Amino acid sequence: MQDKPIIRTAIPKRRYQIGDHSATLLGEIESGDARAFRYILAFVPLGQREPILYVCAEVTPPREQGQGRYRLRFVNANLSEIMGSDDRWGDLDTFAEQGLKLGVQALGLQREAVVRLL
């Protein structure tokens, strides 16, 4: 998976159940690569250990922060794409809402209820 976040440590902030997938929203992330993350939302099929999809709020490099302090990145097995930059991705609730929308749509889970567990 290209651009998969390398996570050394992180604190789970929220957990969700969406059909046959779980999603964990991580904060206070210590990255194992050159990127700095504000939040990561990782989607995992039930019964598996590894995420198959990530939505990340990455800290935008200083020279690019005119468009926003955070950029929203979508990562799965076939794609790594920056979806835009904005200061609002630094807000937990705003990031969670957008990350869940992207993940649910990409995984075809639109008919499933999003249940917040934590």
Please characterize this protein's 3D structure.
It contains one helix and seven strands. It is mainly beta. The chain has a seven-stranded antiparallel beta sheet with strand order 6-5-4-3-2-1-7, covered by helices on one side. It is globular.
List descriptors.
single chain; 118 residues; mainly beta; seven-stranded antiparallel sheet; 7 strands
What's this model, at a glance?
Helices cover 14% and strands 47% of the residues. It is mainly beta.
* SSE arrangement, N to C: EEEEEEHE
Oligomer type: single chain
**Biggest sheet details:** 7 strands, antiparallel
User: Cα-atom Rg, whole angstroms?
Assistant: 13 Å
Total DSSP E strands: 7
List the helices and strands and how they pair.
Elements: E1 7-18, E2 21-31, E3 37-45, E4 53-59, E5 70-76, E6 80-86, H1 92-107, E7 114-116
Antiparallel strand pairs: 1-2, 1-7, 2-3, 3-4, 4-5, 5-6
